[in-house]
Amino acid sequence: MELEHHQIELRYEALRLRDPAREARLTASLLAEGQRHPVLVFADSATGFVLVDGYRRVRALRSLGRDAVAAMDLGCDEVEAMMRAWRLAGGRRLEALEEAWLVRELLGPHGLGQRELGRRMGRTASWVCRRLARPWPCERSGRRTSASHPTTPTGEVTMKRSDDELDQLLATLRLRRVASILERDLARAEKTHASYRDFLVGLLREEVDAQREQRVVARIRRAKIPERWTLETFPFERQLGVPADSVKQLAELDFIAQHRNVVLIGPTGTGKTGIASSILLKALENGYRCLFVKAQDLFDELYTSMADRSSRKLLDHLARLDVLLIDEMGYLNLRPEQTNLFFKLMEERYNRHSTVITTNLEYDAWYDFLGRKEMVGALLDRLRHRCTTIRIAGDSLRSPEP
């Protein structure tokens, strides 16, 4: 496949040594023959594609003004992609220093132990230890440290030790925001004569804010909210049947800490899903684990889990969520096995976590589509025990367009 440069994140650029002479030869080869080998990437839902091997080719293609890069998606997670890139290494062996950086990256954020890492890399734990003990590149007696550390006409090592070490530490700790603003803030601190403390606080504050935003984005993505409604944009003035004060009180999220349920009852199109999704979004922004699911999809998933015997795993996952939003609970064509699993799920969430349900049916009508009067009675008894029920009256907000 072909990717444009903006689609590729150069996440591990700091883990690769720079060799101007080799890159110049590569640029000449690409100019004469074109790109013969694809770069290696893996898909990342937040950033698109992350480059794991082929940094020299990407830089060379960019210098030639080429808009597209031939790439191969490894189709695996981040750790396995880094392993494969290490094995393939673009047709060459990684330098020992690059291997050391790779080892630190895998041992740090990804939490692999030395023995497990050695096993997955086809090496021993002692090999991993030796790579961890590698010194940083430095100049000795005016000679190059290795063939991969070319010197400038002044005899200085191209990659300065301090910059290399700082880049590696930031990469290992995944302080990406700090890495991106460091030069800017250093220049600003020099102009304003900021104290070391103020300089450090400013860097860390931006990193914390960036990581918090990334976590919120990831939680929202996993929650599968179809649209990002907010209470600030809900048309309360058009839907007077919505008790605005009660809804805004729910947005304070006290019901989650109290493990209370919320049920929104009203005709189709009156804003039940919008209100419930807005509350769910607020919960996600405040760090809660949530999931949006259509009632029909939930019952279908429960039934499918019986075929591969994964019902227990699915129930455990759903039961642990801080907030589970079940949308459009209504007249569904259900099998007894589906309702049994649903009863089990609600029993396990009772008094532990909050469930939000939107429906166009009053509670008495639940007996008609869930069946088994005794079980439905027990379900409603648990659901309504600690529950806020909001009934919405009014016309549909989906007015026909002229």
Order of helices and strands: EEHEEHEHHHHHHHHHEHEHHEHEHHE
Per DSSP E runs of 2 or more residues, the count of β-strands stands at 10
Count of DSSP H/I helices: 17
- Multimeric status of the protein: single chain
* Rg over CA atoms: 28 Å
By CATH reckoning, the class of the largest domain would read Alpha Beta
Instruction: Give the biggest sheet.
Output: 5 strands, mixed
Q: Largest beta sheet: what is the strand line-up?
A: 1-5-3-4-2
**Spatial shape:** elongated
- Global structural class: alpha/beta
Low-confidence stretches: 136-161
Fold-level CATH name of the largest domain: Rossmann fold
Number of domains: 3
Rounded mean pLDDT is 80
Share of residues in strands: 5-15%
Q: Indicate the CATH architecture of the largest domain.
A: 3-Layer(aba) Sandwich
Distance between the termini: 44 Å
CATH superfamily of the largest domain: P-loop containing nucleotide triphosphate hydrolases
Helical content band: 40-55%
Account of the protein in words:
The protein is built from 17 helices and ten strands. Helix 15 (336-349) links the parallel strand 8 and strand 9. It has 402 residues and is an alpha/beta fold. Helix content is 49%, strand content 13%. The protein is elongated, with a radius of gyration of 28 Å. The protein has three domains: 1-92, Conserved hypothetical protein from pyrococcus furiosus pfu- 392566-001, ParB domain, CATH 3.90.1530.10; 176-221; 231-391, Rossmann fold, CATH 3.40.50. The protein has helices at 20-33, 55-63, 78-88, 96-107, 114-120, 125-132, 161-172, 176-192, 196-223, 244-250, 254-257, 272-285, 295-307, 311-320, 336-349, 366-370, 373-385; strands spanning 2-4, 8-9, 39-44, 48-53, 68-73, 261-265, 290-294, 323-329, 354-359, 387-391. Helix 1 packs across helix 2 (55-63), helix 4 (96-107) packs across helix 6 (125-132) and helix 13 packs antiparallel against helix 14.
